[in-house]
Specification:
The complex is a heterodimer of chains A (318) and B (232). In chain A, 40% of the residues lie in helices and 5% in strands. By secondary structure, chain A is mainly α. In chain A, the strands form three sheets. A two-stranded antiparallel sheet of chain A has the order 1-2. Chain A has a two-stranded antiparallel sheet with strand order 3-4. A two-stranded antiparallel sheet of chain A has the order 5-6. Chain A contains 13 helices and six strands. Chain B is 52% helix and 0% strand. In chain B, helix 2 crosses helix 6 and helix 9 packs across helix 11. The two termini of chain B are 33 Å apart. Classes of the chains: A mainly alpha (318), B mainly alpha (232). The interface between A and B is medium-sized, with 23 and 31 residues.
């Protein structure tokens, strides 16, 4: 080998190593080597001053909406029940990934949604509550908290860690009976055999998965696919990945075949509402389970029940 | 501090023998068809063996325990939790040099009865503690309520409730439990017995804690008054 060739190789090697090292330095502050997911800042990085106060208020709402935004909350869920680690955990719909993915077109309502409008949907469906108006201090605080978590992340609707990790179709069709067994063995000790959650000192600790205090029929979690993906990656708490994909699909089918509050878009006709909003093999709305039709007003708790009397005027989006 | 606590525990354990001798004459025979709480009281206060001090000689008749030496308060815990711990001590899935022989001496029915007795007691007033410094308490409060995303620690409140009252049969009440006991148990969780399937969860949580985290959590937990949410 010629001397000049060797020196070229050495030079290229040094250059590549240098670039790689510098790139690693630059990136390591933002991303972990293990998961490749973005690392949101800790609470200690919340700035002092008025903006920091609003970020902190947003985190308080996020962890305990029934206390900090009671006028909009109609059940006993918390944002942080699904967005784990108060919206930081990748693979559990982290708020930093959501923040950089909006504005975005959503087929759910057929137009481009701002981030705040997306948050309204959470109150209307997942929280079975009332929708805060755009610009409401509650939405501004949640937006500020999400912005704080996303600091340093470029806008990107495909940020690694966004949403829940996709799950392939199961080998066997999701099954209610198998799901009931998975539930009894792995979920019931926390969420209760009746799925209604468990509380401590009058405050819900383990979230209700169905019944009047859970998410309503309009929530994304009523999709068996969404629930299966969330469960597979994150449940049982801190033991994500321990249930098989099949078990996750089965238990998701079991949970999403239970009674829960009405879809606020219900127009009086279950079949029409199913056709318009639940036209998917992943939704059990309008389907018969144990001899009853899910969504039947005869035994379905109402949508949007906020019992706290406040001056806030609830606003219904679309 | 911690070492001093240990020393106290041993002095105390030795002195328990004295209490035992004093209480020998009070050992009562089992009575047929006795209600569980009454039977439990008899076991707790009078013991079942002339060779051993009663439960109450360490945990007190009112279940308050001995906060300064880390003997846990039993009043405020659920019967199922206490009975489960006695079962673990008896079967060896949880080991303690003092508790294991005691639990082995009791039949399963007696373990349930004595658990019923302690669970039936009102939660005693907490002793006046010298408050830990504000920074320690704040650190403990943050770990307890929020966890630490960067170490992977989930909040304690996630399973024990934000006021530390515990959740039914799932997780024990922590509010007002003594600093020394909580710190000792958190250390034990890092390497000690798993007790039951939930133990692997506790071990993984404890593995995220440094010594100063443990001290802060113990201080915070013992400061909790265990009030119901929304009540003064």
């Amino acid at each position: 080998m010629k001397k000049s060739t060797i020196s070229k190789i050495v030079l290229v090697t040094i250059l590549v190593t240098y670039v790689a090292t510098v790139a690693t330095w630059k990136i390591s502050g933002l991303f972990t080597a293990r998961t490749g997911a973005f690392q949101p800042p800790p609470d200690s990085a919340i700035p002092a001053g008025k903006f920091g106060d609003v970020v902190r208020f947003g985190e308080q709402i996020f962890r305990d909406p029934a206390t900090y935004a009671p006028q909009f909350v109609g059940n006993e869920l918390r944002c942080s029940n699904c967005h784990l680690q108060a919206g930081r955990q990748s693979g559990a719909s982290p708020m930093w990934a959501a923040y950089v993915a909006y504005p975005a077109y959503r087929s759910k309502n057929g137009h481009v949604n701002s981030f705040e409008e997306r948050l309204q949907g959470c109150f209307r469906f997942s929280m079975n509550g009332k929708v805060p108006k755009l610009g409401d201090p509650v939405l501004v605080a949640l937006e500020s908290y999400s912005y704080f978590l996303a600091k340093g992340l470029p806008t990107d609707e495909t940020a690694p860690g966004r949403g829940f990790p996709t799950l392939p179709e199961p080998p066997l069709a999701p099954d209610y009976e198998r799901g009931a067994k998975v539930y009894a063995q792995n979920c019931a000790s926390c969420h209760g055999a009746d799925g209604l959650g468990q509380s401590s000192g009058g405050k819900m600790v383990f979230p209700p998965l169905w019944g009047s205090q859970s998410y309503n029929w309009g929530a994304g979690m009523t999709s068996i696919k969404n629930a299966a993906e969330f469960i597979r990656a994150n449940m049982p708490l801190a033991l994500g990945g321990t249930l098989s994909a099949q078990q996750s699909w089965d238990v998701a089918a079991f949970i999403d075949s239970q009674v829960r509050p009405q879809d606020p878009r219900f127009n009086g006709d279950i079949e029409q509402t199913r056709k318009k909003y639940h036209n998917s093999e992943y939704s059990m709305y309008g389907r018969p389970v144990n001899g009853a039709i899910l969504g039947d007003p005869a035994f379905t708790p109402p949508a949007g029940t906020v019992t706290t009397g406040t001056d806030a005027e609830p606003f219904e989006a679309d | 501090m911690r070492q001093e606590g240990h020393w106290k525990i041993w002095v105390w354990r030795v002195s328990a023998v004295g209490t035992l001798i004093a209480s020998l004459s009070r050992i009562a025979p089992a009575v047929a068809d006795e209600p569980a709480v009454t039977a439990g009281y008899r076991i707790a206060v009078h013991g079942v063996s002339p060779e051993r001090a009663s439960c109450a000689s360490c945990h007190q008749e009112n279940g308050a325990g001995q906060p300064d030496v880390g003997i846990p308060r039993l009043a405020g815990l659920t019967s199922s939790y206490i009975a489960a711990q006695l079962e673990y001590f008896a079967t060896g899935s949880r080991y303690d040099p003092v508790m294991s022989p005691y639990a082995t001496m009791l039949t399963r029915v007696e373990r349930r009865e004595v658990a019923d007795y302690f669970a039936s007691l009102p939660v005693p007033e907490q002793p006046d503690l010298i408050p830990p410094n504000g920074a320690t308490l704040d650190h403990g409060r943050t770990l307890f309520l929020d966890g630490d995303y960067h170490t992977g620690l989930l909040s304690c409140s996630q399973c024990h409730g934000s006021t530390g009252l515990g959740v039914g049969d799932f997780s024990p009440r922590l509010a007002g439990q003594s600093d020394a006991y909580v710190a000792g148990k958190l250390q034990q969780w890092q390497t000690g017995d798993l007790r039951d399937p939930k133990g692997s969860f506790m071990r993984s949580e404890a593995s995220h804690l440094t010594q100063s985290d443990i001290a802060a959590l113990a201080a915070f937990v013992s400061s909790l008054k265990g009030k119901e949410a929304g009540k003064p």
